[in-house]
Every structure is written in C-alpha cells, then in structure tokens.
Amino acid sequence: MPVQSLQNTDVIVPQHTPHPLLPFLQSQSQTTLTRLYQRPSSCLSVFRLLGPIERQLIMNLLWLESALSVATISAWVLPEGKDAYDSALAVMTGLHIAQNSAVKLALNSTFKSSLRQAITGGGSTGSFGVPTDKDGKRQSANIENLDAYALERWETILHYMVSSGQGQNPTKPSQGVLYLLQRSGLMNNAHGPALQITSSGFQFLLHSPHDQLWNLLLQYLHMAEERQMDLVEVLSFLFMLSTMDLGREYSTEPLSETQKAMLEDLRDYGLVWQRKTSSKRFSPTRLATTLTSSSPPLPSSHSTGGSHTADGTGAVALSSGAAQQGFIVLETNYRIYAYTDNPLQTAVLNLFITMKYRFPNLVVGMLTRESVRKALGNGISADQIISYLTTHAHPQMRKNNPLLPVTVQDQIRLWELERNRLKSAEGYLYKDFASQADYEYVLAYAKQLDVVLWENAGKRCFFGTLEGHANVRGFIERRTGSV
Amino acid sequence: MRAIKGVLLTCDSAVKQILLTMNEKDPFVIEDLDDYHLVIKADEEYRVRRELEAELEKNTYSLETN
Amino acid sequence: MITAYLLWLYRSSTSHAPNWTKYLTCIISAMEKASHLSVIVDLSPTQWHLSAQTSNQYPLSIETFLSQLLAFLNAHIASKHENSLVVFGAFPGKSVLLYSSTELLSDDVPSLDANSYLPFKLVDSTVVQRIMNEFDAIGELDEEPSCALVGAVTKALCYINRITHPSSTTAGVAEDPSIVHDPRILILSVSPDLSSSYIPIMNAIFSAQKLKVTIDVCKVYGPDTVFLQQAAHLTNGSYIYLERRDALLQYLIMSFLSPTSIRKILAVPKQDKIDFRAACFCHKNIVDIGFVCSVCLSIFCQPLPVCST
C-alpha cells in the first residue's frame, strides 16, 4: 500500500504567490542583475525567494556543464504540472537566471558559478560579510539585546503610524523613516503639517511583520534608484545581511560608501545594530537575518520579551515558530479577549474593535457594527480583519475548527457588503430608438467599444458610460446623416 | 432616438424600493429600468446617497445601545 | 430578509465557496512549508574500499562521495531557511548521529569566514569531523560486524516522530510553522542485503508508513538490495541504482532533493521492477516460494508441523 502523502493528489496546479521583491528584480536590466549575481550571497538569497519549482529546476541545472534541450526537461514535467512549470520558467527567464531559447535551457553562467560557490564555499568575494575578531574588552551584543533593539525600533515605527490619527504624541521615528513612510503612501500630510496615516497605512498595520518589512524595503529600493545609489550595492548588502549569523559582529571596513550610508538607514529600521554611529563594526538583527526566510522576523510580539529564550547560535537552531504566539480569543458573541499589554497591539486592535475593559494583561473589546464600519471607512477590508484575527488567534482558539466563529466572519463580511449596497456610474441613457434594427446596430457598436453598462432589448434602451458617449453620439450622427 | 445624461444606480431591490419612496417626496429618478437599476439625475447623487444612508441607519440595531 | 439577501450576495460574490479557497491555500502552503530530510549514510569500510578499486568501471572513493554528498546536503539547506536536516551514519555494528540541524553536536563552532555561508560550513565540518572520529575509533578487527543500517533507520524514524509531534501541550493545528511537513529519509547504501535484518526492516517500513515518511534509496555500490527496494516502494519513495557513479551529485539532486509535493509536478525516476521476495523467519534466507503459517502469517522456507512463533 503506498502511503498517502500529506496533500491530496487532486489535479490542482499549486500557485506560488511570488515574493514581492521578484517583480522589482524582474524590472531591472540584465546587466544590473548579472552584476548582482556576481556575489554568492546574493544568488543564494534570490534562490531562496523563488518558488519551489523554480528552485528545483535551478538545482537540476546547476551542476550541468552544457545546456539541456528543452525536450529533455519537459519530459520530467507531469501533465498536471505543465502550467506551473511554464510559469516557473517564465520567472527564471524574467530574472535572467536562465537563458531560454526555443531548444536549449541553461543557467546564466554568472549565476551558476556564484551559486555553486555559495554551496561549496570558497572563492574570495567576501560576500557573506567579513566578521570581526572577538573583542576582549567590550562584550558584543547578545541575541537578546539585538532582539529587544529590533523590536523597539520596529514597534516605534508602527506605533507612530497607528497613533498618528488619534492625536497622541508617541515617540517619533527618525527623519529618514518618516520620509520613507510618506513616500510609500502609508502616511501623508494632506490634512495639515502633521503626518496622518492613510488607508493603505491602515492595511499595512494588519500585515505580518515580514510583509511589512519587505514593503518598506521595496520602497527603500525605489528611493535608492532616485537617490542615484547603486542598486546592486544596495541589494547585495540586504542579501548579505540576510545570510549573516545572528549575534555576531561584522566589520564595516569592506563595505562600499553606498553601503556605509545604508547602515544609518538600516539602523533606524532596526535591521542593524551598532554600538556607536562611528563604530567600525555592526551586528545584524533578527529582522535582517530572516529576510529570505519565513520564520518570524521579530522574536515575539509581546513586550514581555523575557520569555523568549535565545536559541544558541540562531542560524543553526531550528527556527522556533512557536515564539510568535497568538493572543486573541474571539467568541461567537463578538467579544474579543486579547491577552496583551503591548500598546502597539492594543492600538492595532482599536482600529476595528470597541474597547470595553482594560486590565494589566488583558484587553476586552467587542466587534461592533460601528467599530467595523470605522475600520472599513479607513480602507481596511473585511478579509484583512479576519486574517489578522486568524494569525493572532490564541492557542486555545486553534482547537476550534473553523478557527474563528463562522457567524462572526460572515457578519464582518456582511458589514463590508452593506457599505456597497448602491453602485453608481455616470453616463448616458439611450432610448426611444426608431426601430429594433436601429437599436441593435447602435448597441453592437457600443458593445464593440465596451462601454455598455446595462441593456434591455424589450424596452429598446441601453446605458453607456460617460467616456463612450462622444463616440456613440458621433456614430449615431454619422448614421442618421447618411440615411 | 434620445440620449439622456444621468447616473446609473445598481442596487438590490430593497434599496430600490426605499429610493422610490424617497423619489415621491422629492423627485430625482429619470428612468426606472428594472428591479436592480435606476437612472437618476447626475447632480442629485450625493444627496440621494446621504439620505439613503440615514434611512438605512434607522433600520439597524446594535447591541451597544444599552 | 435584507440579511438573507446580503448573505446570498456574499456567497455569490466570492465565486468559490470559502472551503475551496481554504483548501487551495492549504496545498500552496504545504509546498512552501519547510521540509525535513534525514540522510542515512552506509559507511562500511570494506564496501567503500571495494568501491574505490580502480577495477570498477566508475571507481568512487569515499572522499569524492563525501564531497558530493555535502554539496547535496547544502543544496537541501539552501532551498529553504527552515528546512531541517539530520544525518545518520551506519558504521559497522553501530549507528551514529552525524549532524542535526536542531542541536549543536560539536562545541567548536567553525570560525566565520567571509566567503561561505555559516550553516553550510557547519554541516560540512561537523559531518566530516564526526565520520573521522568514528573511523579512528574502529580498531583492527579480524571480522567486520555488519553495518547497523536498520539501527540508523530506526533512529531516523524516532527523530522524525519527535519533530512532527512536538510535545508541547498547545496541540497546534497545521498552522504552527515549526511542524515539519513531508518528512523524508534518504538511504545511501553500499552494503548488500543482510537477510537477518528482514524483520526489523519491515517493521521500520510499517512505522514509516504510519508516520507518512517517504523513504528514498540510492544504491551507490554493490548489488541491488531487495529489502530497500521494498522500503522505497511501500513508502512511495524512489529506489535508484547508481549506474553512472561519476554523476552521483546530479543523481542525488534530480531524484532526491525535491519534496513529495514537487514530485507531482516534476517527476522523479522510479524503479518499475521490484523484487518482492521475503526472507524466511527460520533461517533468514530469501525465498522464492515459502510456507506461510495460517495463523500468524510467518514465512518459512520448509514446512513445519507446528508454527515456531
């Protein structure tokens, strides 16, 4: 009896949601990418960002000296996987990792030799960062301190965002961070001098820390382009950080000028820790070392960070996913119990629940029509609320199936739909056509332009959009003119 | 043949009935197309939406009222 | 009534039923989950000595083998940050844990160097160092005891059992990312079948089935082994007899690197001829036709008046 594997074997082409960085990389020129691929650490990181099928294909091709004929490769592909295989191939050629001609498939030679080097070690590129010798006098930062630092930086940013709309005055992040938030459209100063959170900012708050981080870094990359920074330097530095070992110190000496300048920005985001701004050494935090993995980038969302045990040499130990524990209990009566004393989490919850009581370690609130409508008004979608509640559900809740009470989920979605009971579109109503043939003739033309919003042959009238009106009127005039 | 400028409203039938009642007081409907569609005067849209909102609010009950 | 209508609107607007979407994301996330690989290396000095003889068509020394194996192990870790890896060595008479990604085995962490990725370096140095230690410990023996392959398989299964069923009382459902999906065991075998190990191997296969573990086998040197063929077949893994031994790494990567979810898209080679013969319980011989006890289904090579078990 063959063992039933964990997944069902139904013919469903698994679609891998591509990493947000990949489209950005794809938009870069081949020369930029090839320069990037000269560093083994960058290759390794890009490789990890790819989907599982791409990874396997790359590995299959990695140790071959010659190109493989496309026919040979397609022979591996099962018929059900054809679509997934094709899209994987498209991603690889888009990133210039693979050179795909009609008959042969081979890896980009730079990428190939760098990834080989990453896997076997050796070479002299120094792309994994130059570590500093242990300094006897000063103790280097331990993992706990690094975690605390990263958490503090990150929560400062988020807390600033969430409380901007409520007239509180939390600690302001640095000028660079503020600029970044504004540039990314998460905050703006449309209503006066102070920065206000925008609707995309509200959505941003409900994302996982990993998504938030990449979201900001992508924006940083776009900014880097405008600031005439060398993109290859910027990217390879980020990738270098992602392959570094947590809790070690690295030397700033071999960094380029661009990368040294980046250190300051990354310090503000909490990706890098330095004893002094002038220090010749830096340590990556967990935010940085988990950039290309899916393990939680922050030790724990609880401010009671003491419970987190530093897991020895972080890179070696199995990423303990349990570190990020849920804290929310949602009952069928719409009540929410959140076991937290973290002001950020409370503030985020406050976006869509009505607070009732607060205790030292517990916040009790309720999902009400008003509170959810307020969130919807801020641009947060029902799905985002539900997914936030799901990801942060208390371990006790995980025994339930489905995790969240269905009634509450449905009600949140209904509240969202309720806001959209009326859809409107401006345009023109065309009616009183002389004959059925006339009507059908004009309608066919309008349909060709794709401007018809509603039609009824019985009443012999249809409704067209505002944009289409000039064309349709011209058409009718030409027609009546010619008759 | 005539072309009339207006706004096409797409809604469920319940909302449509409310709109028709509102129309009796203060006409704005140009054409009643079918169960789910109405054409109204373009410059009335904002007022109609606001009044509809108020009308719908009358019919919602919240646990929090006590 | 309005609520009912809205509910209908909602059901029809989400074109798929919620369950469907949930199911789909389930599959997708399964592909993105970390996978676990346990590698069992058969390290019988005699067999490796034979394998390195230049009289073979493709001689393969243990040094070349290890360097290619390490590249393969690194490729597994490279694929995903969360991938876990355990290496067991089957030495004559004992099986040893050579590397584990969840615990640190040697105290001296290799010094960082700017040209290599630390986790890779750690695997390489730990595995090599521990193999060397074990080989040094093997004294001059008149007779080499048989390799403890079964012991290694059993240890690997225990290990997988431990990581797939975390003892934590939270009893997290599949959403806990630390739960490893899709565990696999890869056996790199050089020794011939040991008929005395038939029963323990079968037992290991059954527990692997129960744990949903896939067993892959790569026969690096020596004749086909019947039992390992069966192990791979019964757990939906693949058994490959290494023909071109100079292309070991390519074989390893193409056939054994991909987790089972990927194998539904990119096929891996499988043996179609499997030797299903069993070994008898009385003399541990592999038999073509045997006698089966009608009560306990034990297999014997000759008829017995009373079942011995």
UniProtKB/TrEMBL annotation, chain A:
Subcellular compartments: Nucleus
InterPro entries: Tfb2_C, TFIIH_p52/Tfb2
Pfam families (UniProt xref): Tfb2 (PF03849), Tfb2_C (PF18307)
GO process terms (BP): nucleotide-excision repair; transcription by RNA polymerase II
Principal location: nucleus
A molecular function GO annotation: ATPase activator activity
All copies of domain Transcription factor Tfb2 C-terminal, residue ranges: 410-476
Keywords: DNA damage, DNA repair, Nucleus, Transcription, Transcription regulation
Function: Component of the general transcription and DNA repair factor IIH (TFIIH) core complex, which is involved in general and transcription-coupled nucleotide excision repair (NER) of damaged DNA and, when complexed to TFIIK, in RNA transcription by RNA polymerase II. In NER, TFIIH acts by opening DNA around the lesion to allow the excision of the damaged oligonucleotide and its replacement by a new DNA fragment. In transcription, TFIIH has an essential role in transcription initiation. Component of the general transcription and DNA repair factor IIH (TFIIH) core complex which is involved in general and transcription-coupled nucleotide excision repair (NER) of damaged DNA.
Similarity section: Belongs to the TFB2 family.
Protein name from the UniProt record: RNA polymerase II transcription factor B subunit 2
Organism (species): Suillus plorans
TrEMBL record, chain B:
Pfam families (UniProt xref): Tfb5 (PF06331)
Subcellular location: Nucleus
Keywords: DNA damage, DNA repair, Nucleus, Transcription, Transcription regulation
A single cellular component GO annotation: transcription factor TFIIH core complex
GO biological process, one term: nucleotide-excision repair, preincision complex assembly
SUPFAM superfamilies: TFB5-like
Known role: In NER, TFIIH acts by opening DNA around the lesion to allow the excision of the damaged oligonucleotide and its replacement by a new DNA fragment. In transcription, TFIIH has an essential role in transcription initiation. When the pre-initiation complex (PIC) has been established, TFIIH is required for promoter opening and promoter escape.
Family, per entry: Belongs to the TFB5 family.
Known partners and oligomeric status: Component of the 7-subunit TFIIH core complex.
Protein name stated in the entry: General transcription and DNA repair factor IIH subunit TFB5
From TrEMBL, chain C:
Family matches, as Pfam families: Tfb4 (PF03850)
Keyword vocabulary terms for this entry: DNA damage, DNA repair, Metal-binding, Nucleus, Transcription, Transcription regulation, Zinc, Zinc-finger
Natural source organism: Suillus plorans
Organism lineage: Eukaryota, Fungi, Dikarya, Basidiomycota, Agaricomycotina
Gene Ontology molecular function terms on file: zinc ion binding
Protein's job: Component of the general transcription and DNA repair factor IIH (TFIIH) core complex, which is involved in general and transcription-coupled nucleotide excision repair (NER) of damaged DNA and, when complexed to TFIIK, in RNA transcription by RNA polymerase II. In NER, TFIIH acts by opening DNA around the lesion to allow the excision of the damaged oligonucleotide and its replacement by a new DNA fragment. In transcription, TFIIH has an essential role in transcription initiation.
Gene Ontology, cellular component aspect: transcription factor TFIIH core complex; transcription factor TFIIH holo complex
Domain of life of the organism encoding this protein: Eukaryota
Protein name: General transcription and DNA repair factor IIH subunit TFB4
Subunit description: Component of the 7-subunit TFIIH core complex composed of XPB/SSL2, XPD/RAD3, SSL1, TFB1, TFB2, TFB4 and TFB5, which is active in NER. The core complex associates with the 3-subunit CTD-kinase module TFIIK composed of CCL1, KIN28 and TFB3 to form the 10-subunit holoenzyme (holo-TFIIH) active in transcription.
Subcellular location: Nucleus
Protein biosynthesis recorded as keyword: no
Record has RNA-binding as a keyword: no
Family: Belongs to the TFB4 family.
GO biological process: nucleotide-excision repair; regulation of DNA-templated transcription
